[in-house]
Each structure stands twice: as C-alpha cells, then as structure tokens.
Amino acid sequence: MKRIYLPVGIFVLGMALFSCSQKATDKNTENMEIVSEIGDIKVDRFADVQVLRYEIKDFDKLTLNQKKLVYYLSQAGLAGRDINYDQNNPYNIRIRKALEAIFENYKGERTGDDWNNFEVYAKQVWFSNGIHHHYGMDKFNPKFSKDYFQSLLKAVNHTLDAATLEVMFNPEIAKSRKIKDPKQDIIVASANGFYGDGITLKMVEDFYANVKSPDPKRPLEIGLNSTLILNNGKVQEDVWKSGGKYGKAIEQVIFWLKKATTVAENAQQKAALEKLIEYYQTGDLKTWDDYNILWAQSTKGDIDWINGFIEVYGDALGMRANFESIVQITDFEASKQMKALAENAQWFEDNSTIMDEHKKKKVKGVSYKVVQAASESGDASPSTPIGVNLPNNNWIREEYGSKSVSLGNIIEAYDKAGGKGMIDEFGYSKEEKERAQKHAYLGGKLHTALHEVIGHASGVINPGVGQPSESLKQYASTLEEARADLVGLYYIYDQKMIDLGLIPSFEVAKAEYDGYIRNGMMTQLQRLELGQQLTEEHMQNRQLVASWAYEKGQKDKVIEKIVKDGKTYFVVNDYLKLRDLFGQLLREIQRIKSEGDFKAGQALVDNYGVKVDRALHQEVLTRVKPLNIAPYSGFVNPTLVPITDKNGEIIDVKVSYDMNFVEQMLHYGKNYSFLEK
Ligand SMILES: [Zn+2]
Fold first, then answer.
1. What is the pLDDT of the chain when averaged over all its residues?
2. Can you tell me the distance from the alpha carbon of 84 to that of 63, in angstroms, rounded to the nearest whole number?
3. DSSP string, 534-591
4. How far, in Å, from the CA of 19 to the mean position of ligand 1?
5. Per the CB 3.0–4.6 Å rule, which of 201, 402, 452, 535 could disulfide with 397?
6. What is the pLDDT of residues 127-137, one digit of tens each?
7. How far, in Å, from the CA of 397 to the mean position of ligand 1?
C-alpha cells in the first residue's frame, strides 16, 4: 500500500511508472535532455540531494472551475506545511525561522566556508522539513560554529533561545527523529514531536491498552491525529483539530477546503471535501473513516487530492501520522494510452505467444491510473513519492476499494534529469544513444502501460492448480513480474502499436529493447553493494529476462557483449530475433504459472535472476561514480498564480516555473507559516 518511492540513488528509468507491487521500482530508461520548455529541470544540488522541477501538462485544458479547485486545494495543502515541521521536531519551526531571517536579511559576506556550510545546512533543513535527514532521520550536525551562527543572528536582529541552540549544536541531543532500537525507550529516545515531555513507552502502551474501536471489524486508526501528552500527571491525547493543537494551521486548511467545495466537479467530490472539513473541525477518527470511504469512491473527476494526517513512517510505534498534501490532475495523454490498450485487451490475449490453453477467453485490462502532481506539501514535499495507494485503513480498502495512482510528471522529471550521464556512459554506439534521447522515455512509459494493463491481466491458471503464491512460493512474484514485463516487451515491437497510434515507429521499441538489456545486464547493479546478490523481485526479473535472452541468442549474436577500452557494453544486433526470444520466454513462464511448475520456475530464477557477476558489478560501480548521481531527489512546486478581476474574482490561474529552491522555501516560510513558535 501506501507510497511508492524511487529507490535511493537511482536515476532511472521511466519505469518507475510501475505500480504493481507497491514497491519502488526502476527500469531501464536513462535518457533525455535535461533542459525542457520549463527551463532547467535541475534546480539545485547540495549535500546528498538534488532538487528538480516538474511540469504540470495540460493545465490549460482545465475549465476555470477546475483551475480554481486545483488552486484552492494547493493552498489547503500549503497551509498545513508548518504542522509537519512541528511533528518532526518541536524546535524545527523556530530553527527554520532563524535560518530564513538570516537568508532574507543578512547583508554581510555570503562567501567562504562558514557561509557555504550554513547555506547547505539551511537547504537540508528545508528539504527535510526539519533538522533530521528526511530518509535516514539522523540529525544534521552543523559544520559551522555556534559563534558564527550567533554572529549571523545578531547581524539580522534575530534571537534564538539557549534550548533551541542546544538542540541545533549539541550532537548528543535529539540524535534521531525515530529510534527503533529495542534496547532504548523508543518513545523517549525519538526526537519527533508526536509525544510530549515525560511520556514513556510504558505510558503509551498502558494508555492504548484501554482504547478500543467501537466496531472491532472496522477498526479506527487509533492515535493517528494527536500528540500524546502528560497533563498534570495524566496521559491524554492532544488532538490536532480546529481549536485544538495545530488549530491555527488547520483553520487555514479548512478555509481553503471550504472554497474548494464551491467548485467541486461533482456531488461525490463535494461530499468528500465536506466530510474532510468536518474531520478537521472535530478530530473524530470515525469521521476520518467516513471521509476516506467517500474519497475512495470519488473517482469521476479530473482533479483529486490527498490531504490529511496519513502516513505513520515517522512514529516509532507507527501510530501517529505526518501531515501531507498532494493535488492531482488526470494525465489525459496517459489515460488515452491506457484506454486504447484496455479496449484491445482481447486482441493482445488472442495474439500472444502463450499456449492456447493458457489464454483467457474473456480478458479485461487492469485499470491503472496516471496523474500529474500539481502541488505538494508537508510530508510529500520536497521529497515526493512517485505513486500512492490509499486509503491506508484495510477494512475500507476491502469494503470500498482504494485508489492507486502513479505521479506521471514526477516520474518524467526524474527521467529527464537522470539519464543523460548514464546513457552516455553505458550506451555503445552514437545511434543507440541518439535513439535513447529521442525515444526511450515513450518506450519506457508504454512498456509500463503494457506491463500493467495487459501483462498482469493475461493468462489463466489450469484447473486444480493453486494460486502462484502457493504453487510457486517464493518465486511467484519474480516470475509474475517477468511475465508482465515480457508481455510488454513482446508487444511494444508489434505493428498493433503503430496502428493504435501509440508509437510513431519501431525506433521506440528498439530504444526500449536497448535500455532493457543495458539495465538488466549491467546498470541496475549500481543499486547493490559489492558482494550482494539480487533479492528485490523487479531486479531479479529484469536480470532473468535479459540474461536468458543473451544466453539463448548467443550463437546468433542477437545480443553481443563488447569490451572496448576496458569497458563492457551489451549491444542488441537483431531486434526481431530478440523479440522472438522474448515471446518464447513469455510462453514458458506462462506455462510455469498455469501449471504451477515450481521446479522449472525455481531453476529460471536461480540460474538467471540471482547471481551477480562480481567483476562486472565492480565495473558498473566504478563507471557510475564519476557521474555524481545524487542519492536523493526532491522537487520545487510550480507556482499557481490566481488572476483576479477588479472585484477580486478569480478569472484565471496561471502556472509559473520561475522560483528556484531557496526562493520557494522563503516564499512558503513567509506566506504559509501559521504556527507560533
Ligand atoms: Zn508488475
């Protein structure tokens, strides 16, 4: 469930469009120019982070009311931004405000080691919504002295109390946002703001031992939206709601949500928004469930949103949730692609290379949704997921369904920023590199669509054979991913793709084949440490497919291993023969699944999908290193600017891409800071 992230340090692959296994996945696209119509995709680079820019496509296709809805929802998200800072650590807002005051007003020298270190620290705090690393959760220890920092504060007439300075500069205090080490009291040791002073793990356990959901079959997300505090020696929840804790920010969120209800696209959306407002007003968790039911069923509009206290990764006990907001617009182009594929699902099934007895008589494409992020805030920004699957409460998912989306424009931005260096290094010929530049993005996107919509939907299991999780056990998901990948690889090189208007020429398919082989044989190894074997299912499947095809085509040199100037390349010589090999492997893996042939499945995965060639792995790591790929990425948001008439009525909303990272952070600090500290 929940969120899908791009793997750390990867620049890859368009494929991140993957939603099937709810895992961060990558693939083979290392392509594209960095500069696009919206200017440089790469906005900033510091420490272990790079900041990118994403583009909202087709915003102009929205009606005025839809534009207003996007704008209001984005404001509702930004209004809650401070909450997330405080949840991460109660000193964060105070520290951030000091950093912002210096950035805004300091007139002295802005050069030299001290200033540079200060600047990196400030950017890290903004990027992580606080003084702890957004991913590792360890505290940033400033590389400048307290004296230097105090001289900056003095110069801008800003003061910071001794306790806050101590939290900033004493490495022994607030070491980590979340401690999971069972040898410590994980509540006392964790530096997040979810539990008040004096609260211990024992107190939390005792308190919740007595809190039960009224309906045990439909459990509430207990503890989700409060800080647990000691009040005159008594443990109690300080609930995040209008008039309660974080009330000042929540009231702003409500203000904008109310405006959003006036331009909702349909009654279902409006009902969901009204229920969300009621929840923020009351803090009642039953209302939160009622809201999620309405939201999960609200699937008709072009605009959607995530707004609330949702993910619990930041709490050592996994109860309390950080505030986040993502505003989404349907990706019209991707939706059209999905629709074209889904409508032809039976054709794909009938024409597949799998045995007739394994074909579905009546196949229905899997529905899969790509959206565009229009604005992100709180825990979803600047570091963002690439896909989201909500709501989290399991009984609601079972009874009312869930919504799973890929954030297409975020993935595209990753793709554009990521790949140029990789393709230059690992692509062999000029032709291959140019093809990747031109076509790999579309190839990756279409392959993913085929994988999801057609691949996972295809095939039947023989009567009497159990589910793959029973018959193929630990090999089931690797084989399933391989099967779906192969459906995509086989069909992307089919005339049907051209007939459906999905690709302009087979150059797209060739780019996808080049990239898939490069990745499966080599480049994905950048994610492993030397000596590791492949364990993650998507990585196993890609190596399996690529190395099986390499071996089977070796005598015809379908794929050729070339070593030039000490560098290894895998080059596709015969695309049609490779397509035929993909078709053969698809037939075999479908047979394994349909018949539940554990032995054959095990042999395929173990022989082709697990072992890593150590020398080649070392070579990949050595070649990737100088490319200086940032382990983590995040994004600035486009700025939504309402255009008003003389009465203050919004007559249009414009999208602007002109802010850099620091400008946007200062802008947010100035305009969306609603919590006193
Ligand atoms: Zn899949």
1. 92
2. 32
3. --SHHHHHHHHHHHHHHHHTGGGTSEEEEEETTEEEEEES-HHHHHHHHHHHHHHHHH
4. 7
5. 402
6. 999 999 998 89
7. 20
